[in-house]
Write a structure and sequence with these properties.
The structure is a single chain. The chain is of the alpha+beta class. The strands form seven sheets. The chain has a six-stranded antiparallel β-sheet. Strands 22-21-18-15-24-25 form a six-stranded antiparallel β-sheet. It has a four-stranded parallel β-sheet with strand order 10-9-11-12, sandwiched between helices. The longest helix has about 45 residues, at about 10-55. Keywords: ATP-binding, Cytoplasm, Kinase, Lipid metabolism, Membrane, Metal-binding, Nucleotide-binding, Repeat, Transferase, Transmembrane, Transmembrane helix, Zinc, Zinc-finger. It is a single-pass membrane protein.
Length: about 575
């Protein structure tokens, strides 16, 4: 043992130093690489944002294209990159700057360079044509080869093969395709701009060149509504229409966007509101402001693309219970062209607080759908409070309805709104109505309530006067609680029908009660609520989205009318 050599102290220190060095390298190197990659990524993002900010294109980033895509510059297959939501260009990140300089985007106005304003040529873009598109020359399918091939006009959406493209086709006048009656041509806006400089306002002369069928469409989309589909829809509409016609109401208020109607012929404009019932009400309020400003001859007709949770108004007008992308945007535009004009009653809801020293002005709301006090308003109040705290958690229509179900189940056990008949007095057209032991009162203007339930008809087993949204009458019903509301929605019970009236007056004598107008809830103390007719709104009704309930309801209405006519004939 004594003959063995012991390692020198400095050799142990040297080995420990190597160990420490390799440990530091193994820890710091990944950190350094991660930091360097994040720095490069930040620099690329800043570079992209700088290009986006200065560009005339509407560039958007994407992590994955939804279909096989090829860069319009290098022609290579790409999975991620950027695309223009106005003209449809798609590029790799490295080719973004070249594409921005090489390819012009849609021109919302033509340059007055001496050429005829009504002779607008096609604007062709090569590659990435829509699936199932066909060549206008040979009528064969386009875009079937796995490469950058074939052309598409960004205005009329016509497609043509590379080999079918001719000089005559390149110089051919563009007719704006299928949606020519909805598009505001750039030449029209250029002429309007020139007329305003000359202080002329006879826009009908310009519109006569576009034909009698020209009904330009303005898109007002709420990018935050319901399932957050608004952002994608904005891009799809910009591709099919003139980008100047498409607005995001979260960035441009409806009253400002609707001023575009004043540049169009009288009573010609149509508006498609993409959002929930709240967004529709916001737009209709802006239309009322146009009336106050003396712009009544420019009032548009309003259609709805439902993106909200309940969507009762859009359901009443035939546009369905909710849009989830199952119908192509082009088909939505066709539906708007086929829709018929109708009137919708709008009502003024005035809430006057009680008290000896109440000097506040009465609160005023505008009602399109319904007013209620009771369990359904309580559910809406709880839902609204939680959505205000965490809006990102309430982006799913199914999740939102599940939250409503939770609070409805909770109220079945707690019954916070019981003995409502002891707390309120109800008057219909000035006559007081005796109420049974209710928990809620609902005043209806439209046929649907609670996300698709025809409340006034109930199970449809009893004959009652027909409910309409344009007759100047309100339908007033009562419910016995949250469980009763659930029974009505699955057609296991009827509501307590109180009556129809032109004016409704409700007096809350004591305590706090939840109230709502068109899904906007609040807690209200003793007050007097008066509902009177305010005005009419011009809406668009689409009959192609009728459900089985609508068809049966329509047939019931026709049967009742025939019965009434037969009774009158017998009396005569």
């Amino acid at each position: 043992m004594e003959g063995e050599k012991r390692p020198a102290p400095y050799e142990g220190l040297f080995a420990d130093g190597h160990l420490v060095l390799w440990t530091l390298c193994s820890v710091l190197l990944p950190v350094f690489i991660t930091f360097w990659c994040s720095l490069q990524r930040s620099r690329r993002q800043l570079h992209r944002r700088d290009i986006f900010r200065k560009s005339k294109h509407g560039w958007r980033d994407t992590d994955l294209f939804s279909q096989p895509t090829y860069c319009c510059v290098c022609a290579q297959h790409i999975l991620l990159g950027a695309f223009c939501d106005c003209c449809g260009l798609r590029v790799d990140e490295g080719c973004l700057k070249k594409a921005d300089k090489r390819f012009p985007c849609k021109e919302i106005m033509l340059k007055s360079d001496g050429r005829a304003l009504d002779a607008m040529p096609h604007h062709w873009i090569r590659g990435n044509v829509p699936l199932c598109s066909y060549c206008v020359v040979c009528k064969q399918q386009c875009g079937s080869q796995p490469k950058l091939c074939d052309y598409r006009c960004i205005w009329c959406q016509k497609t043509v093969h590379d080999e079918c493209m001719k000089n005559s086709l390149k110089n051919e006048k563009c007719d704006f395709g299928e949606f020519r009656n909805l598009i505001i041509p750039p030449s029209y806006l250029t002429s309007i701009n020139q007329m305003r400089k000359d202080k002329k306002t006879d826009y009908a002369v310009l519109a006569s060149k576009l034909g009698r069928q020209w009904t330009p469409l303005i898109i007002l989309a709420n990018s935050r509504s319901g399932t957050n589909m608004g952002e994608g829809l904005l891009g799809e509409f910009r591709i099919l229409l003139n980008p100047v016609q498409v607005f995001d109401v979260t960035k441009t208020p409806p009253i400002k966007a609707l001023q575009l109607c004043t540049l169009l012929p009288c009573h010609s404009a149509r508006v498609l509101v993409c959002g929930g019932d709240g967004t529709v009400g916001w737009v209709l309020d802006a239309v009322d402001e146009m009336k106050i400003k003396g712009q009544e001859k420019y009032i548009p007709q309003v259609a709805v693309l439902p993106l909200g949770t309940g969507n009762d108004l859009s359901n009443t007008l035939g546009w369905g219970t909710g849009y989830a992308g199952e119908v192509p945007v082009a088909q939505v535009l066709r539906n708007v062209m086929e829709a018929d004009a109708i009137k919708l009653d709008r009502w003024k809801v005035q809430v006057t607080n009680k008290g000896y020293y109440n000097l506040r002005k009465p609160k005023e709301f505008t009602m399109n759908n319904y007013f209620s006090v009771g369990p359904d308003a309580l559910m809406a109040l709880h839902f609204h409070a939680h959505r205000e705290k965490a809006p990102s958690l309430f982006s799913s229509r199914i999740l939102n309805k599940a939250v409503y179900l939770f609070y409805g189940t909770k109220d079945c056990l707690v019954q916070e709104c019981k003995d409502l008949n002891k707390k309120v007095e109800l008057e219909l057209d000035g006559e007081r109505v005796e109420l049974p032991n209710l928990e809620g009162i609902i005043v209806l203007n439209i046929g649907y309530w609670g996300g698709g339930c025809r409340l006034w008809e109930g199970m449809g087993d009893e004959t009652y006067p027909l409910a309409r949204h344009d007759d100047g009458l309100l339908e007033v019903v009562g419910v016995y609680g949250s469980f009763h509301c659930a029974q009505i929605q699955v057609k296991l019970a009827n509501p307590f029908r109180i009556g129809q009236a032109h004016t409704v007056r409700l007096i809350l004598k004591c305590s706090m009660m939840p109230m709502q107008v068109d899904g906007e809830p609040w807690a209200q103390g003793p007050c007097t609520v008066t509902i009177t007719h305010k005005t009419h709104a011009l809406m668009l009704y689409f009959s192609g989205e009728q459900t089985d309930e609508d068809i049966s309801s329509t047939s019931d209405q026709e049967d009742r009318r025939e019965t009434e006519l037969t009774d009158e004939e017998m009396q005569v």
